[in-house]
Design a protein that fits this description.
The complex is a heterodimer of chains A (244) and B (218).
Chain A: H1 2-20, E1 24-29, H2 33-47, E2 51-56, H3 58-66, E3 73-75, H4 80-87, E4 95-100, E5 102-106, H5 116-121, E6 128-131, H6 137-148, H7 152-155, E7 159-162, H8 165-173, E8 179-183, E9 196-199, E10 206-212, H9 219-228, H10 232-240
Parallel strand pairs in A: 1-2, 1-3, 6-7, 6-8
Antiparallel strand pairs in A: 3-10, 4-10, 5-8, 5-9
Chain B: H1 4-33, H2 39-51, H3 54-65, H4 70-79, H5 87-111, H6 115-123, H7 128-156, H8 160-166, H9 176-185, H10 189-217
Helix pairs in contact in B: 1-5, 1-7, 1-9, 2-5, 3-8, 5-7, 5-8, 6-7, 7-10, 9-10
Classes of the chains: A alpha/beta (244), B mainly alpha (218).
């Protein structure tokens, strides 16, 4: 019995070490997850580096970074926070790595047509999910689209707010919300393929910027990764997932 | 500064505290006095929300209470309203989440009850119902009070589960913990601080009350 306990304890002690052994630690805004999951193995193959990534909302990652989280690169969902990190001397100069697009997604194929405005105003659509309009750039962009076409006031009572664009999609994909303002990239996930979507042209593109952190534990690997983001392979992946 | 989330949290905590004895008492009695097969399984099921990550529990509840889930579909048939993202939804989630926190202290106080008291009552001709009101209830009042107050404080701080089934709708499901989280994310640290500052003394007072009750019992 004692031996089993010691063995289990030993294993538990070893596991975190394995996770810390990565050569590059990325902080990634949730919406880019499907693309990054494809980019990482390519990068690992090309360079031999081992990459770990954490996926959360840009706001949460920013909060962690200003409190000394040991990330190498922040891949944000906006320009605001990388700019702020740069201005505060916490990061290198930011660069744009992707431009995202908002879509209206629904698990119910009856709710998709050419006109997303009609869908959100449809009486049968009782709940519409959207990312937090204050902290999630996709939420802000979705809100601007609704304001631009003048449906913000009528749709607002139907809105349910996810903390990130991923949660907005989660609400829609479980059917808890009848439709949701999601990132184009979520359409390409396993769940996303089960539903249908309409591109929200009125939503301003979500300009996503990244920056290498000044406190990066692995600056060399970080530099390599940034270069890798400009390769044709990655460009093709971005296009595939609806980014420009 | 908008205080609605705090009021909403208080409302949620109050309703949870009020309704939880109705759910928890029968289960606690069953666990304390029942002799049946599968008792340890029932015990484990009731205790499960205590150890499961709130986000996992929340996601399960989101699916079950969504319009395609059993509870959500039935609710929509009966009331005509959508269950998820409503106050009822976060209240149900809160009850499920808090159940073990109420059942355990209640069960403990029931198990401490001297069986000879109930035997004497039966010998003296007291009906089981009368015995419940005149012997079981007064003896377990402390446990009941401790359970209710603990659940009240616990509901005030609820986060993960509510985040999943609530959808953060201001005035309906945006409770204090969610509002604080959002304020921090939006870098409105001052709002976050003020709301937290309002919550902490309430929770502290609640814990002091529980300590008082427990001290009187022993």
């Amino acid at each position: 019995m004692k031996r089993i306990v010691s063995l289990v304890l030993a294993i538990c002690l070893l596991i975190p070490n394995a996770a810390l052994a990565a050569d590059l630690f990325l902080a990634q805004a949730a919406n880019f997850t499907p693309v990054l999951k494809e980019i990482i193995p390519l990068f690992e193959k090309a360079t031999g580096f081992q990459v770990d990534a954490t996926y959360a909302s840009t706001g949460k990652l920013y909060g962690q970074i200003v409190n000394n989280a040991p990330y190498d690169i922040l891949l944000a969902a906006d320009e605001k926070r990388p700019d702020k990190l740069y201005a505060d001397g916490l990061a290198e100069k930011p660069f744009v790595y992707a431009k995202g697009q908002v879509v209206l997604w629904s698990a119910n194929k009856d709710f998709c047509g050419d006109d997303w405005k009609a869908t959100v105003q449809n009486a049968a659509v009782k709940r519409v999910s959207i990312a937090n309009t204050e902290t999630a750039p996709y939420g802000t962009s979705s809100m601007k689209a609704m304001q631009a076409v003048g449906v913000w006031d009528t749709v607002q009572p139907k809105l349910v707010f996810g903390q990130s664009i991923s949660q907005a999609f989660q609400f829609a994909s479980t059917g808890a919300a009848d439709a949701g303002f999601c990132a184009y990239s979520s359409v390409f996930t396993e769940e996303g393929k089960k539903g249908c979507f309409t591109v929200v042209d009125e939503a301003p593109p979500v300009v996503q910027a990244a920056c290498i952190l000044k406190s990066a534990p692995h600056p060399e690997a970080a530099k390599k990764f940034v270069e890798f983001l400009n390769t044709p392979e990655v460009q093709a992946l971005k296009l595939k997932y609806g980014y420009k | 500064m908008d205080w609605t989330p705090l009021i909403l949290s208080a409302k949620l905590a109050f309703w949870t505290m009020l309704l939880i004895p109705v759910l928890a008492s029968p289960m606690a009695s069953l666990l304390a006095f029942g002799r049946f097969r599968g008792k340890s399984v029932l015990d484990a099921i009731i205790t499960l929300p205590m150890v499961m990550p709130p986000t996992v529990l929340g996601f399960a509840l989101l699916v079950v209470m969504g319009p395609r889930g059993v509870i959500g579909a039935t609710w929509e048939d009966v009331t005509g309203d959508r269950l998820v993202f409503s106050f009822s939804a976060i209240l149900i989630a809160s009850l499920v989440f808090n159940l073990p926190f109420a059942v355990q202290p209640l069960r403990a106080s029931l198990e401490k009850l001297d069986p000879r008291l109930l035997e004497s009552a039966a010998v003296l001709g007291l009906s089981p119902l009368a015995a419940f009101f005149r012997i079981v209830l007064p003896n377990c009042l402390g446990g009941l009070a401790a359970a209710s107050i603990l659940v009240f404080a616990h509901s005030l701080g609820e986060f993960g589960v509510i985040l999943m089934v609530g959808g953060s709708i201001p005035g309906q499901t945006q409770v204090a913990s969610v509002a604080i989280f959002e304020a921090v994310e939006a870098l409105r640290f001052n709002d976050a601080f003020l709301m937290s500052a309002a919550l902490v003394p309430v929770c502290f007072a609640v814990l002091m009350i529980i300590n008082k009750i427990n001290a009187r019992r022993t």
